Amino acid sequence: RKEIRSPRKAIMAVSETQACPASFTMNDGIEHPARGFGTYKVGFVPASATSAAPKDDRDPVEIIKDAVAVGYRYFDCAQFYGNEGIIGQALAQSGVDRKELYLVSKCWNDTIYAGADAIRAQVKQTLRDLQVEYIDLYLVHWPVPGKHIEAYQTLEQLREEGLLRSIGISNYTIEDYAELKPHIKVKPVVNQIEVNPFLYRKVTIDYFASEGILTEAVNTKENEPHVRFHFINTTTRHCTAELVSTPPQSLTKDAPAPSQEQIVGIHLL
Prior knowledge:
Elements: H1 7-12, E1 23-25, E2 31-33, E3 37-38, H2 60-69, E4 74-76, H3 84-94, E5 102-107, H4 109-114, H5 116-130, E6 135-140, H6 148-160, E7 164-170, H7 174-180, E8 190-194, H8 202-210, E9 214-218, H9 226-243, H10 247-251
Parallel strand pairs: 3-4, 4-5, 5-6, 6-7, 7-8, 8-9
Antiparallel strand pairs: 1-2
């Protein structure tokens, strides 16, 4: 299947929309916030990360507390990020009520490969690290061949036990989901994939929408490498002037109407 990769078309599509809604209703009836704060490389850089430096060299606890202070309540976490203990500490210190938070996490490939018991143990570890009694949304981080079906089935069980409110998938292609679909009882609520004007995956997005599964976009600003950063700013400068917004807002389809105030954009992964 050929995916659409037209930066200008994807960016200009923003001009036909208003500001992003506050949330989207998932297929389980639960509201999913539209904007979240990604915690990848906050205070810790995984050994296999694409860059050796954290995104910010400040105290990671203060970074998360600052995010809370400016209004973020949706935090995207993962086992792979290696910092869920830091996130939990910061959120506890922030004093924000648990009911206001929307916490997402994901099990990493080695855990998926190890099987159901390892996944169950990891979910419980994440609960301890984040200092919460349940996780709002938990995902299979990657469709590990021969293992991801069992992984998702384990999440179904953990959902029944009340440890997970919603469950979903991440980095799944249409073919991956076709393999998973016959073996599950609970449909994923989201598929978290990279989406931006340089990787506008219309075929994939449309397919999952037809299945009632939301696409949760990560790397919406295509923040690697620097040459792409330059291209984004060059490509978007005329579009953003017309939309009364900044290039990052345009790339996250978050450009406000001229009469509205500027709003916080997506900051995922």
